[in-house]
Structures are given as C-alpha cells and as structure tokens.
Write a structure and sequence with these properties.
mainly beta
Length: about 120
Amino acid sequence: MRNIIGVAALILAFTITSSSCKKNKDAKAIITVVKDSLNFITGDTVQVPAVQAVVRFYLDQIGAEHIDTNIFTDTRGKAEFVWFEDAIIQYDVVYANYSNLENFLILEQGETVERTVSIND
C-alpha cells in the first residue's frame, strides 16, 4: 500500500511539473508617444499623449514582408504590437511633421517591451 501511494504521489508531482513548463506566449511591444503642451493656467510645459500618431512595426529583411503594420496611438498615446514569437522588430513613429525612424526592439515570448517617444515641436 505504501508503494502505491508513493508511486501515485510521484506521478502527480511529475504531471504538475510537466504542465507548468513555459508555454509559448505572445511577445508584446507598447510604444507610448507623448508631446509637449502648454498648461495655460500654470504656464508650465507638460507632456500629453500624442493621439493618432502612426507607429509602423516592420522587419526590414527579404522574405519578412508579413511583418509590416501601421498602428495608430490611442487616447493614451499608446500603440500596441503583439507577435507570436521572438523577433527583432523595427519601428517608426510619425506625427504631423515629426518623424522618428528606424528604431528597433527585441521581443521575447511572454515579455512586454515598452518604449516612450517624446515629440519636441
């Protein structure tokens, strides 16, 4: 009886350990775009979200045309890109007459990479 309980405990431990292995999870990039704005009450310059800035995520390699997408920033100035595997992704930010080109970031599965781009008018 003691051997049966020991074997059952061993099988249960193996099952729990093997099911908790790292599963493939999406890699995520969040680019926040902010711009300077004048606070008319205090006269101070503050940073506010740049709404509807275009963030282009792409991979500049032959055969990687499937990674090329434009995402507009939301009301918080954030553009979110999700990819299913590890990758080195390039990104450009364009807002009105401002452009910030050929930046890159490293995406890893299960990780979120955040960058902030500040637009100086």
